[in-house]
Specification:
This protein has 331 residues and is of the alpha/beta class. 36% of the residues lie in helices and 15% in strands. Helix 3 crosses helix 4. The chain is globular and about 50 Å long.
């Protein structure tokens, strides 16, 4: 079905409510795995770099599938959901590349410019690099939160231009902010202001680090430091990335406008009670062949505390991402 559908999720006891799912999903302990990945630096045309953390199972061989996982705002390759899902995939023989965007994780001191919701070319660069390391293998991409928007934008642009990457079999975006203006407005209301301030505080040190590492890096404008993400985007992200204004940045980068042109099997997962990303933007998407939108009644933002159908999984989001990739990569 290509219209939005209600996805089955059986929430755990005492986890009702989007804020509770979001916060418990973030703070509850996750499975720990020893870091054993090999790092690959991906050089970008403007001189910045991305870093791929390559988790290659001993059972993987030429022609076996691979997947790229991309973190959300202020995250990195070590974010709990990245580690959990990479482990589940590797246990099934999939070679996994966890991406650090510009200025994140292992790329912290190696980027003059920031990553943002519209950097779809960076997603291309990451997939092309991974594909070269896995010649002849089918690949999939999973983007979480902000990265989900970047991914959907890339897929739609590719559908319009006909430059779909070779060997890209499928994609999945979880809680993507496909209408950035709507999300910005949501962050300014009620309890959401706490998330707003939290993300802003996490991003400020990244800017300071960038300015120390690159004296010629674009500097913030206006009344710095900002108190909200919108102020951060207005004073830094937009001008540093070549946009005329924060409104221009949000307008050009929001993925909703690109979804109708996607021609790769794609799953979009969101929750009716996501406090950060209004579900309205997903219900208003047109039906697109090959794009499956699943809306759970509970789950919050990257929370989805539930009882998955497979007892090997402790979290529904992890199960849904892995099963979608498995369906199309055939592992």
């Amino acid at each position: 079905m290509d219209h939005p559908v209600e996805a089955r999720l059986r929430p755990l006891l005492l986890t009702g409510g989007g804020h509770r799912h979001t916060l418990l999903g973030y703070f509850l302990p996750s499975e720990k795995r020893r870091y054993s990945a090999r790092r690959h630096v991906v050089e970008l045309p403007d001189g910045d770099v991305l870093v791929l953390h390559d988790d290659c199972p001993s059972t993987w061989g030429p022609g076996s599938p691979f997947a790229i996982l991309m973190h959300g705002l202020a995250g990195c390759h070590g974010s709990n959901y990245m580690v959990r899902i990479a482990g589940q995939l590797a246990d099934r023989g999939v070679r996994v590349f966890r991406l650090d965007h510009r200025g994140s994780g292992a790329a912290t001191e190696q980027a003059r410019l920031p990553y943002h919701a519209g950097r779809s070319d960076d997603v291309h660069a990451a997939f092309d690099a991974a594909s070269r390391l896995c010649p002849g293998s089918l690949g999939g991409i999973a983007g979480f939160s902000l990265s989900g928007n970047m991914l959907l934008k890339m897929l739609g642009e590719d559908g319009r231009s006909g430059r779909r990457p070779n060997y890209l079999a499928c994609a999945v975006a979880v809680n993507p902010p496909i209408d950035l203006e709507l999300c910005s407005q949501a962050l300014q209301r009620g309890f959401n202001r706490i998330y707003d301030r939290h993300f802003t505080k996490l991003l400020l040190p990244q800017v300071e680090q960038r300015l120390q590492s690159f004296p010629d890096a674009p500097r913030p404008v206006g009344n710095w430091p900002p108190r909200t993400l919108r102020e951060f985007d207005d004073q830094y992200t937009a001008p540093a990335s070549g946009f005329d204004s924060v409104e221009h940045y949000y307008s050009k980068s929001s993925a909703a406008q690109f979804v109708p042109d996607i021609d790769v099997p794609t799953l979009i997962v969101t929750a009716d009670d996501d406090p950060l990303i209004p579900v309205r933007s997903f219900r208003e998407l047109p039906a697109v062949a090959g794009v499956q939108v699943e809306i759970t009644s509970h789950g919050g933002h990257l929370g989805y505390l539930s009882r998955p159908a497979d007892p090997a999984f402790r979290r529904w989001m992890d199960w849904r991402v892995v099963t979608w990739l498995a369906e199309h990569l055939r592992f």
